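Records of this kind hold a single protein each, on a pair of labelled lines. Below, a sample record shows both lines together.
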Amino acid sequence: MRADRLTLLVVLALCAGAASRADVPALEIDSWPVAANCTFTAPAAPAGTARGAMLVRAGPLSAASGGELYQATTDLAGWGGHFSRYLLAASAGGPSTLAWDAGAILTGAAGAPPTPAPERRQIHTSIVQPDGALTVIPFRWSALSAEQQALLDLDDHAGEQRLAYLRGDRTLETTRFRRRRSVLGDTVHSTPVYYRDMVYLGANDGMLHAFDAATGIERFAYVPDALIAHLHHLTDPAYVHRAYVDGPASAGEAGGKSVLVSAMGGGAKGVFALDISDPDNFAGALWEFTDRDDPMMGNLTTVPQIAKVRVRRGVDRYFAVVASGVNNGGDGDGALFLLALDKPRTEGWRRNSNYYRIVTPVAEASLINALSAPVLLNDTEGALRYAYAGDLQGNLWRFDFSGSAPWPKAVGKPLFVARDKEGHRQPITQPPLLAFADVRGYMVMFGTGRLIEKADRSDLATQSYYAILDSLRSPPEVVTGRRQLTQRFLDGTDMRMEPGSKGWYVDFTQPGERSLDTGLLADGAVLFNTVLPGADACATTRSRSYVLNVVSGLPDEGGVVASVPKTLPDYLPTPSLLPQAVTHGVADAAGGIRQEKAYAVVQVVGAGEVGVSGGMTSTRRVGRLAWREIVNWRELHEAAK
């Protein structure tokens, strides 16, 4: 009897635990921009514009142009999109010149027909089998599977006309389908990727677009099979905005081919990979990976990456390294996925063969959790050694890829748990940054805060920015809390780093201030913006811009002259650096030369408009830093043969 009672108690406890996890609600990912210039405030019919994804590419100092800006904008009235290239002035902050507008080119105008014509666009999709094997097909009615046709046909049997609309045909607009101001869809959370004279952008028209960087003409587009079930909404005259290809992307080389990997954000739970080796002869998708292939795959809102991974001694393979994201089926657990980029299209997904999953356990089952994208650290041979990623419960995880797949001991305890001074967990939604520490190891840097749901806008909890020292010892030296870090106040009262400090942190001082975007590293400084969101996308939303020394956390230390936090009048996701001048001093006795670099810290403040928000100057020694006489050089040379 006592044994039966004990068994019953265990079963009840397990059921209670399962119930508590099941009670954790899913996140309702907001498909609206963080900020918009609205004519009407929600919930009235929206009008106005919103800035979307952007990419600043600096030019050489000797060039007549200061670089180029790729920028997406959204017309809220019809959710039409524009994606433009601007040539920046040689002097930071000067007037820019519009080179092209891809939305206008695709849509056409009086005297300028759409280019390419809708029937000539190179649009592709895939037929995906239940096990994940796929066949690449053109996005044309006759090529679709019967199931795909049914998803577009609906009860009105207008599937073929609906597909023509999605390809850009406008003949049935206003009479049967939704009127568009631009054939190109809007872009909210996806990111432009520049790679080999092409620029790639996901949009909420259901496509990943590939544009010629010089002309803005679309070379090809891809419609993920995972989104076909939702494409019919785009033709509805009563369309309510939703996400499609609304996640970040990245590109790189993988075993002799060029690959782009894109998240789908709130559009679908999953990620897809494209072979972009030859944009003129697009080879199609390598694969799609969704929650159908593994239930722990969620909505991926952070960037996927490409890495060479040593699966066993002497054997390297290329993988997409992807976090499980939000709303995954892991009962609160997170996961880091490694998805093989050499998987044949005809091969189904097989765990521990062509994909791997490393689970990060949930800390508090009653709280929402999700793993965000990692930063990757390679060994001297270019193979992945460590990955660092945070989650919504504030855990900073270190993944160790020494040894062989499936790396059963890749992750242990969190390297650090981000908590405010009251002990409340602080969410991490951005990939960290890595920089050399002034002692053995790396500084792992990240900000906290989230803005995933509309309800997140009203969260006034204190968020922070952290730099955590990882000595690279195994097992890792866990940083147990704030008491092991040096607090920075940025008001001139900071002292030197405390002896034995494991890093530093800054608490943001404005109510609701949070860090969403990773920022960047430059010459010993870390640059990032925070956001102070309004009550909704149409309300006033502001930013603050930070430039701090990596090692000390101070705004002026170690040869880096930077700026203290500056409040900006608008929401600006991330700062960019444009080099302004380089000066060199006289060589010293050892041959070293003092080099000084001046940068303008710039923010995109309007359509094609770049404003200067601050400056940064770095000083370093270059040239010959030291010398010694080698009297036995000939012997050493002979021994090396």
